[in-house]
Write a structure and sequence with these properties.
Helix content is 25%, strand content 25%. With 346 residues, the protein is α+β, with helices and mostly antiparallel strands. The protein folds into three domains: 92 residues, FAD/NAD(P)-binding domain (3-Layer(bba) Sandwich); 111 residues, 3-Layer(bba) Sandwich (FAD/NAD(P)-binding domain); 106 residues, FAD/NAD-linked reductase, C-terminal dimerisation domain (Enolase-like, domain 1).
């Protein structure tokens, strides 16, 4: 990174920065000054206020492990919790996942059900509708006390209960930059309430995905220094959860579409095993889903199965251009493939 920065004429200063005022930052012994300032410090795991929370790990800690535990309790139902559950289970770790409310909240519920079924098939044990009350040490590892009076024991505990903007230590108060709900609010140009201070990525707590942060950074650079002003479009963002099976999505879920359009919504979906899995009858079935709105416009495209992210990335182009079900139907199928179902389903 340092070499590439040097080639681009960027001075890379390593260390923790702290604002002295709205134009100056201190990094170690250095004081840096900028006419324009961009805050892009990202986010950090949230650690719940829970007795014994210091006995558990957060997601950052997993990358420092020298050996895997034999078993683990994962607290949380979001994409980080689910992805690590699948990674660890695939590496031979016995996984119990505690989900207080919904698994993968915000994603299409039918597709989430397919993901959950696939995870259970591979060995993940879910405890749903309960929350952790305390974590204690045992001779063998850790015990998690649950709200229903039961408990779960394992070698280790992972708290994957969300992330928040990394604002602690920045001394933003010295800049006059507004902070609302623990995040930095910005306008469409990534500008804060202080005209020469901008922010991108997870620190704004809008759509916390790496490609979104990258696009916001490019838009900022092009607009402020490249003479090509433009804005990031947050209206149609494809996303994927790299569970096993994989979940990928773009546009509205069935639930969101019905809230907006009521009876004008129609759903087309298909469930099947891919050709490579059909004969041995191994692996989770694929689940493909189109959510249609008024005039049969495709409002959402969702997939559970192999290569879901690769397929949905291209579907996002079609949705962004306003494709209808008729546009999908007149597209010739590529056979034999998983994605052909999107253009052949009734």
């Amino acid at each position: 990174m340092g070499l590439r920065a040097n080639r681009a004429g960027v001075a890379l200063v390593r260390g923790w920065g702290r604002f002295l005022d709205d134009r100056r930052l201190q990094v170690g012994e250095q004081v840096l000054r900028g006419e324009t300032i961009l805050v892009a410090v990202g986010g950090q795991p949230v650690c719940p206020n829970l007795p014994g929370a210091d006995l558990a790990m957060v997601s950052d800690d997993l990358f420092l492990l020298e050996r895997f535990p034999g078993s683990i309790v994962i607290v949380g139902g979001g994409y980080i919790a689910c992805e690590f559950a699948c990674i660890l289970q695939g590496l031979g770790v016995a996984v119990t996942q505690i989900v207080r409310r919904q698994l993968l909240r915000g994603f299409d519920r039918g597709c989430v059900a397919s993901v959950e079924a696939g995870m259970v098939e591979k060995g993940t044990v879910f405890r749903k509708g309960v929350s952790p009350q305390a974590i204690t040490s045992t001779a063998a590892g850790r015990r998690v006390e649950l709200s229903d009076g039961d408990s779960v024991e394992a070698d280790a505990v992972l708290l994957a209960t969300g992330r928040k903007p990394r604002l602690v230590g920045l001394n933003l108060e010295a800049t006059g930059v507004a902070v609302e709900g623990g995040r930095i609010p910005v306008d469409g140009d990534q500008r804060t309430n202080v005209a020469h201070v901008f922010a991108v990525g997870d620190v704004t707590d809008r759509i916390n995905l790496t490609p979104v942060a990258v696009d916001e950074g490019r838009a900022f650079a092009d607009s402020q220094f490249g003479g090509k002003p433009h804005r990031t479009d947050h209206g149609l963002v494809a996303s994927a959860v790299f569970t096993q099976p994989e979940l990928a999505t773009v546009g509205l879920s069935e639930e969101e579409a019905r809230q907006r359009h009521g009876e004008d919504v129609r759903v087309c979906e298909a469930r099947f095993r891919s050709l490579s899995r059909a004969l041995p009858k191994t692996g989770s079935p694929c689940h493909l889903k189109l959510v249609l709105g008024p005039q049969e416009r495709v409002l959402g495209c969702h997939m559970v199965g192999e290569h879901g992210a690769e397929i949905i990335q291209m579907a996002a182009v079609a949705l962004g251009m306003g494709a209808t079900k008729a546009d999908f139907d007149r597209t010739m199928a590529l056979h034999p493939s998983i994605s052909e179902e999107f253009v052949t389903m009734g």
